[in-house]
Structure formats: C-alpha cells, structure tokens
Model the fold of this input.
Amino acid sequence: QVQLVESGGGLVQPGGSLRLSCAASETLFSFNVMGWYRQVPGKERDMLATIESGGNTNYADAVKGRFTISRDNIKKTMYLQMNSLKPEDTAVYSCNAVRVVKRNTIWSTDTYWGRGTQVTVSS
Done:
C-alpha cells in the first residue's frame, strides 16, 4: 500500500514562508501526477498545484506566483514552497498521488492521499 506522509506545517506570520514535504513510500516515477490540496473545515478541498511525471506543473489562481511545487525523485519526496503567506492560506494541506493502471482490459486510476499537515498563518 502506498504511503504519503506530509511534514513542514506550522504557525507562520503573514508574509512568511513555509516549505511542505510529502514523502512517498515508493518511487515517484510510478505516479502519473502528484499534487497539493488544502481544506478548511466546512469547505471543499481545493487543488493548489499539480506536477506530472514529465515535470509539467499547474497552479490554482489563488496561489500562482506565491507557491511552487517540485519533486525530488531520488528522495521520493514532493515539495510545496509557500511564500508571501496570507491568513486565508490557513488550512490543512494534503498531498495526493495518482497512478493510471490497467487491470485486464480496463484502464482506471488509483489515488492516494496523505493525512495532511496544518498550516496556520497568523500574527
């Protein structure tokens, strides 16, 4: 079973920075796409950034220019560098990995989630 473990969350002042890490239990090359999401209690989980196995990245408008997603295939770890943090960035941040698989003749996707790490932006 694939395991994803996030770390790096915490309390930071507005305007500050944090780097989140997502350590995977197996090679990142086995995933077609990985991403970072966040959720505030009572609201839906929002996609923040994704990175494909080929390196293509995609960002939500809310974080474009402030957050950077990256991956280190040797360390089997994905990162989210977060700069210019705002109070509205406060949430539980989770990482996600998706693998496209073929079972018999049917294509499907296996999706894995970490448990999340709390980020609080407050003075």
